[in-house]
């Protein structure tokens, strides 16, 4: 397998051809925040938290959907990038109603972790405070749109791994919302297999198991790689 | 169809046209139709039938003639005489014109445009050469005007390599806005490896105030088909798609009719002109999303997916529709190609300025005496366009700025009136050529309000995929609303500028990257207006109502009840 060498934050590192910048960066133990990226799912490049500076490119590039190329010079943590990342997290908090104090995923939330890591302790933008609903029509699970950050991990896992495509996104812009089937209550969905993969990969408290109290909803996004590996190795035959 | 057939078709049509003593063209473009052109045409036809003059005089529905704000427009073409264009024609006036023509008298001069009418005389028509002169619904008229000759010539005498070279020599750059060299793009697509390749014409024109592509599609659809077929031959594609904006019903209908007619005549389809080249064109209609004009979203939409962009590279020329190499060009770019192939790349390169060759179509709109569609050589100054061609600002008011490039563009202030309209000069003054919309503003325009209008548009049209664009544009618009409402602080202005930086740098596609441009460019030239709104609660233009007192909790609640940006759809 051919390899590429590139410079990341001043250090010469190696990567396999075909890998993304994010993979190379993480293989070398560097931390880069992400929300829409999840090992095992297709890349979306939507949260823009993993943006890095690549020499020769006037704009920062998302590491998750940029291929590592020979001789690239990459910087992952300049003041400008950190400022941008903080602003992006602030925008996410301003967009919907993220009240950690009453959230089932408080303490186990990726958005919360990213915000804490980046030191976002207040939001300078006007809270949009949209009036969003909660769908508890499913027997076992619930969805709270107030916590959704539109990373579409649920949409992708349902389509790409479970092969069902129950979830999709309706409307556009700030009005975008995750919907089940053709905007039916989740409980009435004719396609949903109730596998719960969407719940496990959701980075926030938007998708949860019913009956969980504040702070109880611990997720296992890592199950996805186990599922995919198991399938590849045909681990469940016989 | 072979070349002799094409020649025969052209001659037969010319003969047919010469049988008429006079041809009356009525503009059947969208602006004229909405001004009542259809009733004018109907009354003309009725009068012709009643007076049994239809063997001598023909009434034709043509494409756009240019001065759209003066519609309905009627052009009279008599053998051996100079053509006359009449403006603001009523059915009554049309009958009078017809009557005088029937009696061999001079037509009434009351609403005739003078022969040296600067709006028309100062233009140079290449793409619009047939607009307003032929009936877009008859392929014979396009052929009689020399149409499909370039395609026949290319298929028989040129290699795909030659076609690409000719386009490179012409110096043509993408007319969709970015100005990427067309020859380079074609060569990339030609050299790309792929089992199948595609050609896409981008007719999803969403900029407020811009309608160049619509007019070309409505007025001369075969020119686009010929350009696409030439592109298909050059890169080795057998399938083309025209992506037409959903709102452009008439353009879609005429294109569809044109495709059918071209297929029937053997100008498209299998073995075009008896060569080994097959080319099919299909139409895809957009569902009304601005972002679908962006090439990766457009491709997703053609493939039946949600119209959202993806990260580039890979570029469409490497990996486009269904993973195959795809050439995406704007409608206007493709419509230029038949002229380049017909008259040669060097001829085209001889027009325009050093870095920007050829001509450009603009939609002149806003506070200008004559609004409409114009085509001028690249490098024509803004002053010439506004004052010489457009007739200046109505009501004796002062020119303030011209907004170009739509929501991705910016303003050219009065101090820069002598800016040549070409890619480089426009970039230098902080705006872009864009697809060619020019909105002229006079002293009654308030620049923060203009910026707010464009941000409102971007906020509404953001697809929602990436955070900076989805939420950033909403917050920017809110800050602008505070400024125009007189409740902002200087801190808000700083926040706005910081958001401009983030949204421009970190967004996924062109929509988000360029969304801050109207704000940045108005701040560059009219910062004092922003400051005046903030510190003196005054709008010099008198546009912003400043009636709002600083928002307290009650007002905030009211805002949400009334449906702010974050309100649920």
UniProtKB/TrEMBL annotation, chain A:
Keywords: 2Fe-2S, 4Fe-4S, Iron, Iron-sulfur, Membrane, Metal-binding, NAD, Translocase. SMART domains: NADH-G_4Fe-4S_3. Residues 80-119 form the 4Fe-4S His(Cys)3-ligated-type domain. Residues 139-170, 183-212 form the 4Fe-4S ferredoxin-type domain. Residues 2-80 form the 2Fe-2S ferredoxin-type domain. The keyword NAD applies. GO terms for cellular component: membrane. Its cofactor is [2Fe-2S] cluster; [4Fe-4S] cluster. It is found in: Membrane. Pfam families: Fer2_4, Fer4_Nqo3, NADH-G_4Fe-4S_3. One of its GO terms (molecular function) is oxidoreductase activity. The keyword Iron applies. Its main location: membrane. It comes from the Bacteria. Belongs to the complex I 75 kDa subunit family. This is Bidirectional NAD-reducing hydrogenase, diaphorase subunit. It comes from Geobacter metallireducens (strain ATCC 53774 / DSM 7210 / GS-15). The lineage of its organism: Bacteria, Pseudomonadati, Thermodesulfobacteriota, Desulfuromonadia, Geobacterales.
From TrEMBL, chain B:
GO terms for molecular function: 4 iron, 4 sulfur cluster binding; FMN binding; metal ion binding; NADH dehydrogenase (ubiquinone) activity. The keyword Iron-sulfur applies. Residues 448-493 form the NADH-ubiquinone oxidoreductase 51kDa subunit iron-sulphur binding domain. It holds the Pfam family 2Fe-2S_thioredx. InterPro entries: NADH-UbQ_OxRdtase_51kDa_CS, Nuo51_FMN-bd, Nuo51_FMN-bd_sf, Nuop51_4Fe4S-bd, Nuop51_4Fe4S-bd_sf, Thioredoxin-like_sf. Keywords: 4Fe-4S, Iron, Iron-sulfur, Metal-binding. Belongs to the complex I 51 kDa subunit family. This is Bidirectional NAD-reducing hydrogenase, diaphorase subunit. The lineage of its organism: Bacteria, Pseudomonadati, Thermodesulfobacteriota, Desulfuromonadia, Geobacterales. The gene is hoxF.
């Amino acid at each position: 397998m051919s390899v590429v060498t590139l410079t990341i934050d001043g250090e010469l590192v190696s990567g396999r051809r075909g890998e993304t910048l994010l993979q190379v960066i993480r293989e070398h133990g560097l931390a880069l925040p992400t929300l829409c990226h999840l090992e095992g799912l297709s890349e979306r490049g939507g949260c823009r938290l993993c943006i890095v500076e690549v020499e020769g490119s006037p704009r920062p590039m998302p590491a998750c959907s940029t291929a590592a190329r020979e001789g690239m010079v990459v910087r992952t943590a300049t003041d400008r990038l950190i400022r941008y990342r903080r602003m992006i997290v602030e925008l996410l908090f301003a967009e919907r109603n993220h009240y950690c104090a009453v959230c089932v995923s408080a303490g186990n939330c990726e958005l919360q972790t990213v915000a804490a890591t980046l030191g976002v302790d207040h939001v300078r933008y006007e809270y949009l405070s949209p009036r969003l609903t909660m769908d508890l029509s499913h027997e076992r699970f619930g969805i709270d749109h107030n916590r959704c950050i539109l990373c579409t991990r649920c949409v992708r896992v349902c389509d790409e791994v479970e092969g069902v495509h129950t979830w999709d996104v309706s409307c556009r812009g700030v009005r975008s919302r995750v919907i089940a089937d053709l905007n039916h209550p989740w409980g009435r969905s004719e396609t949903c297999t109730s596998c719960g993969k969407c719940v496990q990969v959701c980075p926030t408290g938007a998708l949860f198991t019913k009956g969980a109290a504040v702070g109880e909803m611990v997720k296992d996004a890592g199950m996805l790689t186990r599922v995919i590996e198991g399938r590849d190795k045909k681990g469940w035959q016989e | 169809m072979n070349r002799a057939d094409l020649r025969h078709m052209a001659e037969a049509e010319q003969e047919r046209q010469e049988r008429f003593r006079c041809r009356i063209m009525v503009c059947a473009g969208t602006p004229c139709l909405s001004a009542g052109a259809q009733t004018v045409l109907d009354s003309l036809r009725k009068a012709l039938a009643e007076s049994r003059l239809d063997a001598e005089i023909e009434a034709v529905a043509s494409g756009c003639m240019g001065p759209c704000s003066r519609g309905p427009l009627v052009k009279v073409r008599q053998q051996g005489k100079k053509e006359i264009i009449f403006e603001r024609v009523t059915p009554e006036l049309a009958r009078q014109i017809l009557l005088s023509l029937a009696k061999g008298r001079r037509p009434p001069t009351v609403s005739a445009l003078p022969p040296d009418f600067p709006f028309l005389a100062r233009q140079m028509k290449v793409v619009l050469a047939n607009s307003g002169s032929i009936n877009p619904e008859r392929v014979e008229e396009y052929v009689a005007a020399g149409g499909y000759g370039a395609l026949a010539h290319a298929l028989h005498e040129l290699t795909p390599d030659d076609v690409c070279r000719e386009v490179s020599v012409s110096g043509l750059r993408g007319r969709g806005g970015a100005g990427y060299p067309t020859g380079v793009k074609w060569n990339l697509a030609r050299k790309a490896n792929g089992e199948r390749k595609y050609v896409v014409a981008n007719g999803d024109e969403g900029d407020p105030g811009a309608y160049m592509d619509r007019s070309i599609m409505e007025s001369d659809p075969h020119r686009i088909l010929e350009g696409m077929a030439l592109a298909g031959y050059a890169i080795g594609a057998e399938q083309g798609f025209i992506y037409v904006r959903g709102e452009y019903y008439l353009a879609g209908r005429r294109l569809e009719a044109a495709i059918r007619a071209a297929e029937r005549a053997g100008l498209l389809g299998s073995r075009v002109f008896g060569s080994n080249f097959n080319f099919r064109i299909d139409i895809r209609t957009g569902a009304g999303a601005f972002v679908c004009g962006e090439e990766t979203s457009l491709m997703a939409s053609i493939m039946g997916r949600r119209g959202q962009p993806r990260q580039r590279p890979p570029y469409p020329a490497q990996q486009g529709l269904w993973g195959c190499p795809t050439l995406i060009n704007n409608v206007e770019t493709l419509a230029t190609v038949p002229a380049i192939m017909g008259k040669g790349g060097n001829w085209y390169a001889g027009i325009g300025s050093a870095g920007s060759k050829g001509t450009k179509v603009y939609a002149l709109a806003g506070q200008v005496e004559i609004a409409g569609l114009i085509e001028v050589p690249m490098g024509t100054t803004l002053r010439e366009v506004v004052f010489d061609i457009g007739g200046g600002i109505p009501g004796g008011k002062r020119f303030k700025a011209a907004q170009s490039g739509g929501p991705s563009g910016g303003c050219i202030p009065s101090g820069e009136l002598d800016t040549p309209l070409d890619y480089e000069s426009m970039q230098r003054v902080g705006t872009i050529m864009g697809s060619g919309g020019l909105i002229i503003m006079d002293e009654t325009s308030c620049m923060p309000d203009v910026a707010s209008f464009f941000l409102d548009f971007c906020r509404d049209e953001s697809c929602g995929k990436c955070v900076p664009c989805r939420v950033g544009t909403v917050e920017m618009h809110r800050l602008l609303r505070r400024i125009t409402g007189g409740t902002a602080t200087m801190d808000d202005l700083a926040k706005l500028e910081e958001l401009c930086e983030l949204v421009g740098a970190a967004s996924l596609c062109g929509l988000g990257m360029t969304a801050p441009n109207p704000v940045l460019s108005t701040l560059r030239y009219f910062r004092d207006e922003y400051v005046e709104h903030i510190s003196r609660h005054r709008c010099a233009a008198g546009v912003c109502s400043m009636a709002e007192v600083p928002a307290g909790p009650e007002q905030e609640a009211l805002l949400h009840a009334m449906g702010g940006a974050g309100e649920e759809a």
